[in-house]
């Protein structure tokens, strides 16, 4: 079966049309489109399903729990270890996702969890995944309704195909400092970046990729962001941040600009700072 390429981002108008058509065809809801609400915050005290999803979500959506599929390790240098392929497979099958399903993911906060979810699907070989541009905030701003109703889904058949080329480890980053074969982007805020970063890394803060309304900037503006930071958007890139979450937003931005296989340094600066010698951390004076 031929699967057409899907957009990195989709609009609320497009998603509304898809939902309206799938509501008229239950089989289509089950087999072709799956809307995922990934609303989540890092605090272990906050239950995203109860605090976010059950308070109102996009019709036909089901909840994607990052804490279930990607449990945090708060005391480890790598806070969010990559899940096992079988764990990811089993979890998404329970959500009614198959290899041909177009997954559209959103959240109600700042798109951080949406981008991480998008990246995990890419990492396990699922190219049919998009992010709702602007998330739930934009959905509501455009006059669309939310619901507290849940939907029944038929289990999917999902075979993960892990993509190791989409990850970099600490040893790879150390080697890259010498070879400079890949540009490293740090997605943390500018103050954190100046306090200490991987030698040679360029700073594109996660917040800078958005418009004021929370939607992602246009491709021309994203390109200017990259160039202004000293990054060639056409050359190889590694994305990093504090713990491997907001870096996924930079990967989405690069994907929009035509780079389909930008790897994540999943340990990010949390691991780097914990293990690096003092001379392997660059601190800016200004």
Describe this structure in words.
There is one protein chain. The mean pLDDT is 94. The chain has two domains: 133 residues, Rhodanese-like domain (Oxidized Rhodanese, domain 1, 3-Layer(aba) Sandwich), CATH 3.40.250; 117 residues, Rhodanese-like domain (Oxidized Rhodanese, domain 1), CATH 3.40.250.10. It has a five-stranded parallel sheet. The protein has a three-stranded parallel sheet with strand order 8-7-9, covered by helices on one side. A two-stranded parallel ribbon has the order 6-10. The chain has twelve helices and ten strands. The chain is of the alpha/beta class and 286 residues long.
> CATH superfamily membership of the largest domain, which one?
Rhodanese-like domain
Count up the domains: 2
Largest sheet: 5 strands, parallel
User: Radius of gyration from the CA trace?
Assistant: 19 Å
Form type: globular
The overall pLDDT, averaged over residues, is 94
Looking at the structure, the CATH topology of the largest domain is Oxidized Rhodanese, domain 1
> Helix fraction?
25-40%
Query: Which architecture of the largest domain would the CATH scheme give at its second level?
Result: 3-Layer(aba) Sandwich
């Amino acid at each position: 079966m031929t699967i057409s390429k899907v957009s990195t981002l989709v609009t609320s108008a497009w998603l509304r049309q898809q939902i309206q058509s799938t509501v008229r065809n239950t089989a289509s809801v089950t087999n072709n489109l799956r809307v995922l609400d990934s609303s989540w915050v890092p605090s272990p005290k906050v239950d995203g399903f109860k605090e976010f999803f059950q308070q109102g979500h996009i019709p036909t959506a089901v909840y994607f729990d990052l804490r279930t599929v990607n449990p945090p390790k708060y005391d480890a240098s790598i806070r969010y270890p990559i899940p096992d392929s079988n764990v990811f497979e089993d979890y998404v099958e329970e959500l009614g996702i198959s290899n041909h399903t177009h997954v559209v993911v959103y959240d109600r906060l700042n798109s951080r969890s949406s981008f991480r979810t998008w990246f995990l699907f890419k990492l396990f070989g699922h190219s049919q995944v998009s992010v709702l541009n602007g998330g739930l905030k934009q959905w509501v701003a455009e006059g669309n309704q939310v619901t507290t109703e849940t939907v029944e889904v038929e289990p999917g058949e999902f075979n993960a195909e892990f993509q190791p080329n989409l990850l970099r480890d600490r040893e790879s980053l150390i080697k890259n400092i010498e070879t400079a074969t890949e540009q490293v982007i740090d997605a943390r805020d500018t103050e954190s970046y100046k306090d200490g970063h991987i030698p040679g890394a360029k700073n594109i803060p996660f917040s800078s990729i958005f418009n004021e309304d929370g939607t992602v900037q246009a491709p021309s503006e994203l390109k200017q962001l990259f160039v202004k930071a000293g990054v060639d958007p056409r050359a190889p890139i590694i994305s990093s941040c504090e713990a491997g979450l907001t870096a996924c937003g930079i990967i989405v931005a690069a994907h929009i600009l035509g780079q389909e296989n930008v790897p994540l340094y999943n340990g990010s600066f949390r691991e780097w700072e914990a293990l690096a010698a003092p001379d392997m951390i660059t601190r800016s004076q200004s």
